[in-house]
Amino acid sequence: MKDFAPVVVLIVLALVSEWKGYKSAVAANRWFAAALYTASILIWVWMTSRPDLPRPGNWIDGIFR
Amino acid sequence: MQQNVSKLQTNMIAVLFMVSIGIKHPPVPMILAARQDAWMGYIVAGIAVLLPLWLMDAVQRRFPDVSLVEAMISRRPWVGKGVLLLYGFVFFFTISHDIRFLVSLLSVYLLPMTPLFVLAGTAVFTAVLFVKSGIVVTARASVILGPPFVVMVFFLPALLTGQARLAFLSPVLERPLGVAEASLYAFGHFAELMLIPLLFGQRTFRLAEILPGIAVGIAVTTIMILGELVLFGPDLTTMFWDPPYELIRQLRVTDFLDRLDMVIAAAWMPTALLKIGITLYFLCQVACLIVPNLNAKLAAAPVGILALVCSMWFFDSAVQLGELTESRPILFGVFALFVPLLLFVVLRPKKTKNKVLHRK
Amino acid sequence: MSNKEAAIPTGKLVLELDRNVQTLQDVFTDCADVIFRQLTLVNGTKACLIYIGGLVETKELSDNALRPFIEASTALGDESSPAKLLSESLLSVPSSTTFTRLADIVSELTEGSAVLLMDQCAEAVIVRVKGGSRRSVEQSTTEVSIRGPKEAFTEDIQKNTALLRFKMKTPQLKMVSALVGEQTKTTVYVAYLKDVADEQIVQKVLERIRAIQIDGVLESGYIEEFIEDHPFSPFPQLQYTERPDTAAAMLLEGRVIVLVDGTPFVLSGPITFWQLMHSSEDYYERYFIGNLLRWLRYSFLFVALYLPALYIAVTTFHQDMLPTSLVFSIAAAREAIPFPALIEALIMEISFEALREAGIRLPKVIGQAVSILGALVIGQSAVEAGIVSAPVVIVVSLTGIASFTIPRFNLAITVRMLRFPLMLLASMFGVYGVVMGTVWTVIHLCGLTSLGVPYLTGVAPFRKGDQKDILIRAPWWAMSRRPSFSSRNRNRMKNGRLSQGGDSKDGGKSP
């Protein structure tokens, strides 16, 4: 998972198939989708760039076990 | 025009939520805690989960004409939205966990060469399809795709009697405290049933309606763990990452049909996909209730992709997924008890006016 | 007058016969089969009989229309409305009327009526003597059964309605007519049993049929595509049948039948998926046999859909699923084959489909031999040439035979089509791919409706009463209620009671 191509491909596919829906819907939908897609890309880039990434699974493990 | 979801479909969804992931992770810590008495853990947990559901039922009875979600939003908007947000976080964690688990299982047992991302993409695509078709279609699909697995599990005892060693189950009730601990681990998964009262936006919740489903869920999970105990014994079972899969690999009908596990695994996969789909549907509903003017069907793809990415991020490895079962009772248990109590105390119909909001 | 104006005449008849005849001759310019028979009556009145040769029953026309007309000519002399008198009192044909508008007269002519025009009379007498030779009632070629009625519908809609009326001798059988197609003016009847069928569904069908605007309708398939709920779904949402007994059974269950002139295939709806797996033989044989046949068909539906995909999945990804000896023999067979399992299976499947399609058009004598044996012989040659392996030939043949057990051709074609995406998914993702394909198909089916009725009614949404006729077939004495989507009148019989064996219960009385 060295590069962020997979997630971009997936997002592009999603955008292409939902294009008509986004065009005709209220603006809130576009903002929401844009926010979530951006968050996804950022998380993915961050994930692939750092080998010793802080992960919520580890946090939970650390706190409760 | 919202068609109603029938009682049978609601029960089937309850069974799905208890069974699809609930048979996989809990057995290992349960058996570590209670050893040969671990099979009682599911029964105790199933009875215990009735308490928060009963509390939600009691809250619903105060609002006989509207669904719980509508009651929460209209009566106490801030509390309602806060509770929904909390639900959103908890079930976002759930969906990420489920996606990662399904994908890891497929990768380990069936498709080792396929990238995890591709498998997760297909699972999320299926979940998005469920959301875009709507809850009515998803509920119908659950009646078609759920029962094959449940029926196969009920046939397991007959198929495995030859290899069973009931001596593994004795002495019975050697560790009552261990049983209590085991039931906590099971409760961590059964607590996902808290989704059901809020799932159907236009339907009132009645606990009595889903009792058969809960009973079937308890039966299925108990049969699985009993099978693991009598076939492998307490010591060996705790070595497995996925005890049910090892259990069904022991199925041998004749020399020819000695690999029936693929059939049962193939029947199990749709239950996991359905669970992911229904959770995604719920998350989209929550998003629509919190963000104004949002369309649930358009929100499905963004939420799904975020869940996919987070499923890769949240968890270090597939093994950690199983280890998290030990932390679940605290997370989910608190959530499952806190929310109904809060609603029970806070959410009451308006006393000054006689009419509660009717929106049919 | 341009050609277009002549084709759709407006206006009415005038008093002069010659002008009327000229107008009609202009309308039917270059139509050599339109016959204008000039008459002069005893009292000097001129008349003209116009009809399209081949469309009318000439004997009836001459015996019951022309002869009375000629013989009654003296009585017409002083009548102010001779046409009406003729039509109502003097002609002995079963159906007759009068029209003044040219458009109506042309329409009646093309329908097969004869038109009688008289001088100094602005009304035409329409003599309905529709005849012409059409195919007679024969055995059904597409829906063959061992037990049960053998007659089939024909292209003549009147014969078809008669065949239905032979079975349903009740005035509750309603037939609402509609005319579809601007050039073909095809008669369409919507038949239903009043008080059994859901009125809303009947109205929905009628509305959709009346809204069709098309040049011509030659087959009920045209109408099917216009009135179905989901035009982009591969699954059929209306059933078609060639047999009156099947159509009558549909009517008795509360469904709507659409009869189209010019085709023996009638449409029926709403349908469910389960019904497409039922054949009339299930109901005519005893319920043991009916159930066995039904289960056989369901298992072979599974085989037809999944066998190639499972073969590809197992040989590519999950070889450990097979017993060791089978793995060795398959591996040995596939050793020399240059293609992966998917390509092998696709080659054979596509060849089989091509052979099947070609077999329809071959002469009957060699057609049957070519279809199945041809596939096997060609398959054997392909195996020996090293293009495909023997197991694939077996798989494809079994799949082909299995797909022929599906009673309805439209569902069989859909299942054959669905095989290919499943094979692709299996080659990419193994058993998980097959599962995913199944899940996507189930999602699609659960969202499908047929005239508003969910496609999987009975199982999803679950209807307890329908369980007697989905996966099993309960005995006739136990099926006391109609399917759940028929309207109010669900009771088929007074009480479902087992037939009493009488004295024969304990082996009879004779020693």
Estimate the strand proportion of chain C: 5-15%
Shape of chain C: elongated
The residue fraction in helices of chain C comes out at 40-55%
The tally of helices of chain C reads 16
Helix content of chain A: over 70%
Q: Largest chain interface and its two residue counts?
A: A-B, 34 and 35 residues
Main sheet record of chain C: 5 strands, antiparallel
What is the H/E string of chain C? HHEEHHEHEEHEEHHEHEEHHHHHHHEE
Extended strand count of chain C: 12
Order of helices and strands of chain A: HHH
Mean pLDDT of chain A: 86
End-to-end Cα distance of chain C: 93 Å
Tag the structure with descriptive keywords:
heterotrimer; A: 65 residues; mainly alpha; 3 helices; B: 360 residues; Amino acid/polyamine transporter I; 16 helices; Spore germination protein (chain C); UPF0353/GerABKA_families (chain C); transmembrane helix (chain C); Spore_Ger (chain C)
Q: Overview of this structure, please?
A:
The complex is a heterotrimer of chains A (65), B (360) and C (511). Chain A is mostly helical and 65 residues long. Chain A has helices at residues 5-24, 27-49, 56-64. In chain A, helix 1 (5-24) runs antiparallel to helix 2. The longest helix of chain A is centred in the middle third of the chain and has 23 residues, at 27-49. Chain A is elongated and about 50 Å long. The two termini of chain A are 29 Å apart. Chain B is mainly alpha-helical. Chain B has a single domain (7-344), classed as Amino acid/polyamine transporter I. In chain B, 72% of the residues lie in helices and 0% in strands. Chain B contains 16 helices and no strands. Chain B has helices spanning 7-19, 27-34, 39-48, 50-62, 68-75, 77-109, 116-133, 135-160, 176-190, 196-199, 207-237, 243-248, 261-290, 296-314, 318-323, 328-346. In chain B, helix 6 (77-109) packs antiparallel against helix 13, helix 7 (116-133) runs antiparallel to helix 14 and helix 9 (176-190) packs across helix 16. Chain C is α+β, with helices and mostly antiparallel strands. Chain C folds into 3 domains: 3-127, no CATH class; 157-271, no CATH class; 283-454, no CATH class. Helices cover 45% and strands 12% of the residues of chain C. Chain C is built from 16 helices and 12 strands. Chain C has a 5-stranded antiparallel β-sheet with strand order 1-2-4-5-3, with helices on both faces. A 5-stranded antiparallel β-sheet of chain C has the order 6-7-9-10-8, with helices on both faces. Chain C is elongated and about 100 Å long. Chains in contact: A-B, B-C. The A-B interface holds A 1, 6-7, 10-11, 14, 17-18, 21-22, 25-26, 28-29, 32-33, 35-37, 39-40, 43-44, 47, 53, 55-58, 60-61, 63-65 and B 93, 115, 117-118, 121, 287, 291-295, 297-299, 301-303, 305-306, 308-310, 312-316, 320-321, 323-324, 326-327, 330-331.
